[in-house]
Design a protein that fits this description.
This protein is α/β, with parallel strands linked by helices and 501 residues long. It has 3 domains: 268 residues, Aldolase class I (TIM Barrel, Alpha-Beta Barrel), CATH 3.20.20; 80 residues, no CATH class; 118 residues, Alpha-isopropylmalate synthase LeuA, regulatory domain (Double Stranded RNA Binding Domain, 2-Layer Sandwich). 41% of the residues lie in helices and 19% in strands. Helix 1 runs parallel beside helix 2 and helix 5 runs parallel beside helix 6. The protein starts with 5 loop residues before the first strand and ends with a helix.
Length: 501
């Protein structure tokens, strides 16, 4: 290998900006530990200037992992101070500052001149270096920037002391040949600079563009687990890393990622966010190593290489599953959880085991996806569903009654509606006496079959507070109600805290 590529993981920052992927500080730390174990070189923990909660998240991650931890900030001194403070306990801190360089962004978003953008970029790098020696600079919307100006900015921040210069395809606009050419020209025109690629997948080219970048001089690539991120997402860590591994003889490039931990890390992110990759997602999708066509099955049985360019074991995928059912004990549940990268306390394992048995009474088997959903769907005990009843039919007026428990106090309400879901949610509102706006409701079947576990994610607004709830059940209406109540409990708490402040 003639090139080592630094893997900069931004799942906790750019990935979290994907709708539905926000994480609590505890969840960020949990994922950061696994990313560190996976072998990424840099974890971008967040954007400290965004909020006090974000600063706390970055601070918590920085104190937990041994790899480099980056914090994003604009070229403002206040932002840089927040980033430096949040990284105070990091073993290897990195300040990551950015400003746009395209004329489109300069004119319409920042409303500043090229000269002012260049001045701010250099000043920010120099100021950041007064805190830590490792400073990365990003030229936002670089792929749509005038090359001459982009080159001048890269040269100026490199001279100012930036240790890494990121040249992002912020809106997923570039084609591989032109993105690669930009890196080739910059490597030639700014000798000694360490270049980084950060690509978005708006045209489905993020991984291809990232490969083009490293083939033309980039030595860092910014990625996310499962390719999560704004709009169509970011460069997928698992796809980029495995492309370099599978095609190593041609690319002569390598990373430090322990590929056997890829599937485990993917599952952990999904269990935290409730968002799973599509079944045909490369490397980590449910069907990535599945073969249904008879001719494919015959070929794979004869030699897996006929239809598999990588083995399931090489990415940590299991070819067999420990099937859980109503007769499974806590040791079997704990073993399966550990196999999925989840290490729970004794009390937590017992709680999950009870929920496994409850689910197994409704369906025959509990699969890995069911188990991960059960772990992530922890009910909000402040607002709890006691029971519900709904009368519905294609020639009947739908009516529902819901009984809930709020801080130990039981309440009930009834309502009609345009279908069972509408009626039950309205009855829930009546029971709680709250004015709540339903913003989003998404449902998915966690596994196949008519007895599949239904997972529901709900987003609500109560006053100025927005919150997300997450629940699962073989009864989709029950799952929706529990998810709705979980979101209401969180929104209610936020509203009360805001009022108290």
């Amino acid at each position: 290998m003639n090139g080592r590529v630094t893997v900069f993981d931004t799942t906790l920052r750019d990935g979290e900006q994907s709708p539905g992927c926000s994480m609590t500080p505890v969840e960020k730390v949990r994922l950061a530990r696994q990313l560190d174990h996976l072998g990424v070189d840099v974890v971008e923990a967040g954007f400290p200037a965004a909020s006090p909660g974000e600063r706390e998240s970055v601070r918590a991650v920085a104190a937990e992992v041994s790899c480099s931890v980056a914090a994003l900030c604009r070229t403002r001194e206040e932002d840089i101070r927040h980033a430096a403070a949040a990284l105070a306990d990091a073993a290897r801190p990195r300040i990551h500052t950015f400003i746009a360089t395209s004329d489109l962004h300069l004119a319409h978003k920042l409303r500043i001149s090229r000269d002012e953008a260049l001045r701010q970029a250099v000043a920010a790098v120099r100021f950041a270096l007064t805190f830590f020696p490792d400073v990365e600079f990003s030229a936002e919307d670089a792929s749509r920037s005038d090359y001459g100006f982009l080159r001048d900015v890269v040269a100026a921040v490199h001279e100012a002391g930036a240790t890494t210069v990121n040249v992002p395809d912020t809106v997923g606009y570039a084609l591989p040949e032109e993105y690669g050419a930009t890196f080739s020209r910059l490597a030639r025109d700014v000798p000694g600079v360490t270049l980084s690629a950060h690509c978005h997948d708006d045209l489905g080219l993020a991984v291809a563009n990232s490969i083009a970048a490293v083939r033309n001089g980039a030595r860092q690539v910014e990625v996310t687990i499962n390719g999560v991120g704004e709009r169509a997402g970011n460069t997928s860590l698992e796809e980029f890393v495995m492309a370099l591994k599978v095609r190593g003889e041609l690319l002569s490039l390598a990373t430090g990622v322990k590929t056997e931990e890829i599937v485990r890390t993917s599952h952990l992110l999904s269990s935290i966010t409730g968002i799973w990759p599509q079944p045909n997602k490369a490397v980590v999708g449910r069907n990535a190593f599945a073969h249904e066509a008879g001719i494919h099955q015959h070929g794979v049985l004869a030699n897996p290489l006929t239809y598999e360019i990588m083995t399931p074991a090489s990415v940590g995928a299991s070819e067999s599953h420990l099937v859980l059912g109503k007769h499974s004990g806590k040791h079997a549940v704990e073993a399966r959880l550990r196999g999925l990268g989840l290490y729970l306390s004794k009390d937590e394992v017992e709680s999950v085991t009870a929920r496994v048995k409850e689910l197994a009474d409704r369906k025959k088997f509990v699969w890995d996806e069911d188990l991960l959903t059960l772990v992530s769907c922890v009910p909000d005990r402040r607002v709890r569903l006691v029971r519900y009843q709904v009368l519905s039919g294609n020639d009947l007026m739908t009516m529902a009654t819901v009984e809930v428990e709020v801080d130990g106090d039981r309440r009930s309400g009834s309502s009609t509606g345009n279908g069972p879901l509408d009626a039950t949610l309205k009855a829930c509102d009546a029971a709680l006496g709250l004015d709540v706006e339903l913003l989003e409701l998404t449902t998915r079947a966690v596994t196949g079959g008519k007895d599949a576990l239904a997972e529901v994610v709900v987003k609500v607004r109560h006053g100025e507070a927005e919150a997300t709830g997450h629940a699962a059940s073989t009864d989709s209406i029950e799952a929706a109600l529990k998810s709705y109540l979980s979101a209401l409990g969180a929104a209610r708490t936020s509203a009360l805290e805001a009022a108290a402040a």
